[in-house]
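S.,

Sequence below, as promised.
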Amino acid sequence: MIPAEGTLDTGPGRDAAGLLFAAEMYGVQLDHLAAVLGVSEARARGVAARWRGRRHAESARLGPGGPWTWVTKAGLAACGLPYTAAPPALARLAHIRAVVAVRLALESATGDAAASGYWRSERRLRARMGGRVGLRQHIPDGEVHWPDDAPVPWAGECWAIEAELTPKTTRRTVAIMLELLTRTGDYGCPAAEIAAGGPPRHTRVIYLCAPAARPTVTRAREALGTSAARVEIRLLPPGAAMARPTGGRATRAVHDTPGPPSHPQVPSHPQVPSHPQVPS
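The prediction came back faster than expected:
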């Protein structure tokens, strides 16, 4: 069974939570790891080195910017997670980084931390599906669940999160929006538990977009009619973009060496929705 978000019984609090965060998100780049741990990048390098020493993680420079850290088979076992150990896919690095930035920004937004909302990762959702994701079934980049007793107007809601870096076709985007808005059951649940006409699983669908993707997402939302009120569109938060390549190929330096940070840490007031209102 996959443990609840934020639980781990190996090592002291924040350090252990950081390992779990990296496991849930496929991997994390150095500046984001520092933000997760609440420490400097130099200190985050030391934490990653400690994880490597325990064989709980590996690190390498997979692309532009700082090194990435991901969790090994032994680390996943320590976290109680059934995922397949692998480095972040090179073709998905930019997307993974954007989703990590969205999660960090949401969790640091004023009021959201106090509401104790928790993030359910794409990796977790796929694990619940048992690898049987249909060709036409869309898995969101994450879900945010708000407890019923949270001190916010949206207590009890579940939000689907989408990070959009490049535009899909408007038709495909509309189809994804409709699928997320009309889904009634959990991911991986028996078909019998998905009641026809039941309440929607996702109260809202939150799109965090790069400027190039926002026009297509906006057109898709406008095509939804009355359902458009449940789709919110924001720009991706600071720190979501990959660093620009500086020339040359990425190296496989497993034990990274110190260097200047490639991105600022996620600010305390990110451009992520902290309320469920649709922007005008």
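The beta strands are 28-29, 57-60, 68-71, 118-121, 142-145, 158-164, 204-209, 231-235.

Coffee later?
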